[in-house]
């Protein structure tokens, strides 16, 4: 009975909850753009504007948020894991440095790579469910009704087992590990560039955090986007509609049919989403911590914990 009051009174508990708020804000803010990105990646043609118009006309505005329950349900734990894992690994890869100093950029990058690789174990099945639901068309009268994330997960487990739910795990890890390394490195570098000395004193402005976070999100997405296109296509296929026999086969067939441009289809939507999502995450995360700690305490917590930030 005393667990939750003690947990929420601790620094770790407050950061856990703040990370949850940040992740939820990011998903709500960027989900419509994410739905458009997924549909662009899995289609043979169509701009974001034309897909948006067709989706609204045929399926209604609610289709933009279809499948959002799956990432929302996991976002608190996922972001908390990202925060803590990054903080531990960035220090572990930088043991020669004084613990009172912020981790080096090398420690930041390597910690981000490790965090991305571990996060894929949680993120892969969640994204598979999200992608399947985002691509699910509005049913016609008399056809099979739409499925929610729980119903879809059960049907996949029944038909394919855990292996079906983890389809695309390898490509998710290949995408997330280097992208997270670049994400954290870019964020730390940009916040220090925009506000010199802030990595030590933790006194950067909210605007600095928003801009640095947005640029970090854009950099990480641009670096891994071709892998994300392949991942979407692999996770979109079901047991009854197998088109690709692995990562290399998916890459080769996609390029043969649609050309190399297919690997960048939807990039503009993804970049816009990355900036919006990271802005929302950092704003919600920062404001939540300030509510919990107050400005003075929060500055100390930031410095001591080497800035644990989420990725989207």
UniProtKB/TrEMBL annotation:
UniProt name for this protein: Mitochondrial arginine transporter BAC2
Highest taxon, organism lineage: Eukaryota
Family that this chain belongs to: Belongs to the mitochondrial carrier (TC 2.A.29) family.
Gene source species: Saponaria officinalis (Common soapwort)
PROSITE patterns for this protein: SOLCAR
Repeat keyword on record: yes
Solcar repeat coordinates: 10-92, 103-193, 204-291
Keyword tRNA-binding tagged: no
Predominant place of localization: mitochondrion
Gene Ontology MF terms in the entry: transmembrane transporter activity
